Amino acid sequence: NGECVTKLNPDLQYQRLHRCGATLIHNRWLVTAAHCFKRYFIHLYQNSFHSLVIPIQRVIIHPAFNGTNMDHDVALLELAVPAPMSYTIQSVCLPSPVHHFLKNAECYIIGWGSMREGGSLTNLLQKAAVNIIEQTDCQQSYGNVLTPNMMCAGFMEGGRDTCLGDSGGPLTCRQPSGQWFIAGVTSWGHGCGRVGFPGVYTRVTSMRSWISTYLPF
Fold this sequence. Notes:
This protein is mainly beta. The chain folds into 2 domains: 11-91 and 207-213, Trypsin-like serine proteases (Thrombin, subunit H, Beta Barrel), CATH 2.40.10; 106-205, Trypsin-like serine proteases (Thrombin, subunit H, Beta Barrel), CATH 2.40.10.10. Helix content is 8%, strand content 35%. The protein is globular and about 45 Å long. GO terms for molecular function: serine-type endopeptidase activity. Residues 1-216 form the Peptidase S1 domain.
């Protein structure tokens, strides 16, 4: 619908420590990476100083998730109580299974991960503009490890990328209509911002049918 936007990247925490990111796709549901998992709480940041802590009621890991090659690296989180929608807490749109994200789309990565390879986590939510990279171009970097359920974003010349701690967070893209869609879930990559090795994301359109078995829209 026309009201889907993204204002928030929830902070997935365990024992009060940041572990992964996640994306609100409904007031009771989030999407994140399957490889993140233990037992976590979601911190929803209402502004720079206040956060709302919501426990997770249910974790649903994709049944085909392969922890060796990271295929189907996606999980759904059901919150114990609905997240209160506000100016700063809103959900992002889910694409249809046949949605195509154009190479020149306006896309962003978001997270609390390291600012550079080998660096420490940041206390401030970061975002960066990235490009969708053609599958054939990314295949040249990663070879057959890259499956059709994965997509790449960033820059082949390196320098701007997701990093340690950003896993599970979103790759979001804005449509000409102004709607924001989640295109990918931060999954893996060779290092951070390395030349020739962009970030790899779980392709949400490939996961859409599975998501629809739990979210009827």
